[in-house]
């Protein structure tokens, strides 16, 4: 019989619509202004911290909607932003610098919806508010690190070839290698040129010393800078993921800058702490022949350097680096057999081989773990740039008990929270070069709410105009199209909420408005085709069937070409363009379902298979 769906197809339509409404439902519950308290390095959030926060707020008579200890941090919900802001200032001043007190927006989704993975739609920076950073990579430090690596590599290569040298050091933008005689100089320069085609080598004589001057070629400098920028972008993305920010934007701007946008974050303290941290590890051998006290007084062997441990005591370590944090691919915090905090390290294949080859020959000797950070000092100079101070601290000195491989642990960490932060930074990767924030903007939730209100207003006016037109022009069939239009919008919101990486932005709202017009356009094509068939003398049931069949090809062609455009926009676009492309693509797929399958199901139920002389169209 014409215009009758089998039962399974009606059930499919009902199930799809029900799932769409279910996953769109969390957006009705909104979000609570919240205060998030987490620990900075050297502190730990505990249940007694929650009691302390509650006492602070009770004393100030600030009403609290709900307060809980979740995932090693405290989340306090409020009924309005005024209480939230008052609480932030008060709690931050009372708890001190050991804790990070940040503003947040916590979803009010019921637990039963969260249990099935239904969460509110993620809003972009322009709708939810958040922070915008423009960061600049310190390329000078990236080149210095490359030159330091050259020093290490040259020493290793010359020792391997048993070529005698007096010393290897970095001098300005070059690396100098000193020799006692010319024969060793000539052998060394021939060997090094063969292994380092991307470096420039020159030889000269100063008094009784024969020198090789090695410098980076222009091509190598460009390569180092490009690598530093790309790696920093990758590492910042990893760190943002560790922060748990929904759909951030991290992208390159120019040759040395990175744009970072974090929707939903109003307090920049935690974000700046994690994003800007250049924490990494280095492993050095302990110089057991040196006297730490004599070294502290300035009598240090040429091949060694004085460091300090956490108690300020001097530790003499060999300059040679056994391994750097660049080889770390995994880091998890935990506890040892004595319930002391530790970080379990996992190395890549190359790092594991280096560690194994070194430790097998040095069992019984001391190896130190050096924690390195670059911290900004002083005010920005005339060029807007700040200087960085390299802070090095020995966090662990251990005796090598046996040959180590790609997995081992480091101890000597003060508390579990510090171990967690260290593991986070190491897992996300060490920045190739320090970065500094040259521009910082905070977009308040009130401005974001204005954008949402404006977007919803535009969507509402557009839908109202379409609904009135369709109802007047196509009568009852127009009402069917209007119902499908409402379902289409709900399906878009539901699908956007289900997709982990989907974010609604202001251009995304424009994409929904455009989709509404396209969805109605499909129904207009179908309804006009039905009218043509009726005018041609076809029966009612045949006109409905031919109207949907003949219009399908035109609708499919137009939507597929638009979908291809969306894919291209999403592939090559950034930020707002991606948001528009994604929303429009989802809208096209939803409109194909609602405008063709959905309306056909309603038309079949209302008029299909019945003896009718005319249609209300």
UniProtKB/TrEMBL annotation:
Domain Protein translocase subunit SecDF P1, first and last residues per copy: 229-288
Function, as annotated: Part of the Sec protein translocase complex. Interacts with the SecYEG preprotein conducting channel. SecDF uses the proton motive force (PMF) to complete protein translocation after the ATP-dependent function of SecA.
A family per Pfam: SecDF_P1_head
Main location group: membrane
Family designation: Belongs to the SecD/SecF family. SecD subfamily.
Protein name: Protein translocase subunit SecD
Source species of the chain: Aeromonas molluscorum 848
Subunit structure: Forms a complex with SecF. Part of the essential Sec protein translocation apparatus which comprises SecA, SecYEG and auxiliary proteins SecDF-YajC and YidC.
Membrane-spanning ranges: 7-25, 455-474, 479-499, 505-527, 560-577, 583-607
Keywords, in A-Z order: Cell membrane, Membrane, Protein transport, Translocation, Transmembrane, Transmembrane helix, Transport
Membrane topology field: Multi-pass membrane protein
SUPFAM superfamilies given in the database record: Multidrug efflux transporter AcrB transmembrane domain
């Amino acid at each position: 019989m014409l215009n009758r769906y089998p039962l399974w197809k009606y059930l499919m339509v009902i199930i799809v619509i029900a799932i769409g409404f279910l996953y769109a439902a969390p957006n009705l519950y909104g979000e609570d202004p919240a205060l998030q308290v987490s620990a900075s390095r050297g502190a730990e959030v505990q249940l007694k911290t929650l009691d302390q926060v509650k006492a602070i707020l009770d004393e100030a008579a600030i009403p609290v909607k709900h307060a809980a200890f979740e995932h090693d941090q405290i989340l306090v919900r409020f009924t309005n932003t005024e209480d939230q802001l008052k609480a932030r200032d008060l709690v931050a001043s009372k708890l001190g610098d050991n804790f990070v007190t940040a503003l947040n927006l916590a979803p009010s989704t019921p637990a039963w919806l969260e249990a099935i993975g239904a969460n509110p739609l993620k809003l972009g920076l322009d709708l939810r508010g958040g922070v915008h950073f423009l960061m600049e990579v310190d390329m000078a430090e990236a080149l210095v690190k490359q030159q330091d690596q050259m020093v290490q590599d040259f020493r290793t290569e010359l020792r391997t070839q048993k070529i005698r040298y007096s010393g290897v050091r970095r001098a300005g933008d070059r690396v100098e290698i000193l020799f006692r005689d010319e024969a060793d100089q000539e052998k060394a320069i021939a060997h090094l040129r063969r292994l380092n085609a991307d470096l420039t080598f020159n030889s000269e004589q100063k008094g009784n010393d024969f020198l090789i001057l090695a410098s980076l070629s222009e091509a190598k400098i460009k390569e180092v800078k490009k690598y530093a920028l790309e790696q920093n972008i990758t590492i910042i993305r990893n760190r943002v993921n560790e922060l748990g920010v929904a759909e951030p934007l991290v992208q390159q701007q120019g040759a040395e800058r990175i744009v970072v946008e974090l929707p939903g974050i109003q307090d920049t303290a935690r974000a700046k702490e994690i994003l800007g941290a250049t924490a990494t590890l280095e492993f050095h051998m302990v110089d057991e022949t040196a006297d730490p006290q004599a070294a502290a007084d300035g009598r240090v062997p040429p091949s060694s350097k004085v460091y300090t441990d956490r108690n300020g005591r001097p530790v003499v370590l060999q300059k040679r680096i056994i391994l750097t944090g660049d080889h770390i691919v995994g880091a998890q915090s935990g506890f040892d057999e004595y319930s002391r905090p530790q970080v379990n390290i996992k190395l890549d294949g190359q790092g594991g081989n280096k560690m194994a080859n070194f430790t097998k020959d040095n069992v019984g000797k001391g190896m130190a773990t050096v924690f390195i950070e670059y911290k900004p000092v002083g005010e920005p100079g005339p060029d807007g740039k700040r200087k960085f101070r390299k802070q090095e601290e020995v966090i662990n000195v251990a005796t090598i008990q046996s040959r180590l491989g790609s997995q081992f642990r480091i101890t000597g960490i003060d508390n579990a929270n510090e171990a967690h932060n260290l593991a986070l930074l190491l897992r996300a990767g060490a920045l190739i070069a320090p970065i500094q924030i040259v521009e910082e903007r905070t977009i308040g939730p009130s401005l974001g709410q204005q954008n949402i209100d404006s977007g919803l207003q535009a969507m509402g006016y557009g839908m109202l105009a379409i609904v009135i037109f369709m109802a007047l022009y196509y009568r009852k069939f127009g009402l069917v199209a209007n119902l499908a239009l409402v379902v289409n919008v709900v399906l878009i919101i539901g699908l956007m909420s289900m997709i982990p990486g989907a974010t609604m932005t202001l251009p995304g709202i424009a994409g929904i408005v455009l989709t509404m017009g396209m969805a109605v356009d499909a129904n207009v094509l179908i309804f006009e085709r039905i009218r043509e068939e009726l005018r041609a003398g076809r029966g009612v049931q045949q006109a409905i069937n031919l109207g949907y069949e003949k219009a399908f090809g035109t609708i499919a062609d137009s939507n597929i070409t638009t979908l291809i455009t969306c894919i291209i926009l999403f592939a090559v676009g950034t930020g707002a363009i991606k948001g528009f492309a994604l929303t429009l693509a989802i809208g096209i797929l939803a409109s194909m379902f609602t405008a063709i399958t959905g309306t056909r199901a309603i038309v079949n139920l209302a008029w299909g298979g019945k003896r009718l002389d005319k249609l209300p169209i």
